[in-house]
Amino acid sequence: MPPRKIAVPRLRAQLDSALPAEIEDETRLLDLGLEDIDLSDLEVEHLEISGCRLTKTKLAGSDLEKLILVDSELLHCDLANARWADAAVTRVAIVSSRMTGFAGSGMSLQHTTVRDSLLDYASFRFAKFQRAEFTDCRLQSADFVSADLTGAVFRQCDLSGAEFSQVKAAGALFVDCTWDGTKGLSALTGATVAASSPIDTLTFATAVTQAAGITLTHPDELDGLVR
């Protein structure tokens, strides 16, 4: 399988630091370098963030419907319980950030990387992963119901308890992931699952057979089952 190239964010060498006094619907934040800014619970529509580097920025609880996020880096940010419905995310890198309970229903991710981040209970229902890669992320109990994962890559991710029912997965790639209690695995038709450890391979195979309603057992345990 050829490597999937993901474009990196395009940022200017010099970034401004002047944040608008008020952020309203359709505000454009362009070419900014922001650090330790608290935008928790911000609630606006059609916000555009372009060419920005956000470091230790708090966006927890924000409601940014139809956000446009392009050519930006989010480093050590807090996005817990943020709601970014129908967001368009392009050429974005998210690193070492907290995204517990993040809700990105219907969002589109193109040339997006998420690394070393917490996404427990995150929801990506009906999201479209056109070219996105998650590496070393914890996605326990994440919700991917009806998402299009055809352009997604997951590397060394903890997908324990995650829900994949009704996803489109042809072309998706999962490498050395954890699958304990993962649901909806029968929907991953066409995906590629690679595991370095035979134990991880067995864990995934067992989860798939259980999802298909197949019971694996030893011949010695058949007494009483065969009549």
Annotation keywords:
227 residues, mainly beta, Pectate Lyase C-like, 2 domains, 11-stranded parallel β-sheet, two-stranded parallel ribbon, elongated
Description:
The protein is mainly beta and 227 residues long. It folds into 2 domains: 24-118, Pectate Lyase C-like (3 Solenoid); 128-213, no CATH class. It is built from 1 helix and 13 strands; from the N terminus they run βββββββββββββα. The chain has one helix spanning 198-211, and strands spanning 28-30, 33-35, 43-45, 48-50, 53-55, 63-65, 68-75, 88-95, 108-115, 128-135, 152-155, 173-175, 192-194. Strands 1, 2, 4, 5, 7, 8, 9, 10, 11, 12 and 13 form an 11-stranded parallel β-sheet that branches. Strands 3-6 form a two-stranded parallel sheet.
Secondary-structure topology with pairs:
Blueprint: E1 28-30, E2 33-35, E3 43-45, E4 48-50, E5 53-55, E6 63-65, E7 68-75, E8 88-95, E9 108-115, E10 128-135, E11 152-155, E12 173-175, E13 192-194, H1 198-211
Parallel strand pairs: 1-4, 2-5, 3-6, 4-7, 5-7, 7-8, 8-9, 9-10, 10-11, 11-12, 12-13
Summarize the structure.
The protein has 227 residues and is mostly beta strands.
Q: Give the CATH level 1 class of the largest domain.
A: Mainly Beta
- The total tally of domains equals 2
Count of beta strands: 13
Distance between the termini: 47 Å
Any low-confidence stretches, pLDDT <50, length ≥5?
none
Overall shape: elongated
The major sheet is characterized as: 11 strands, parallel
| Rg of Cα set | 20 Å
Q: What is the mean pLDDT?
A: 91
CATH-defined fold name of the largest domain: Pectate Lyase C-like
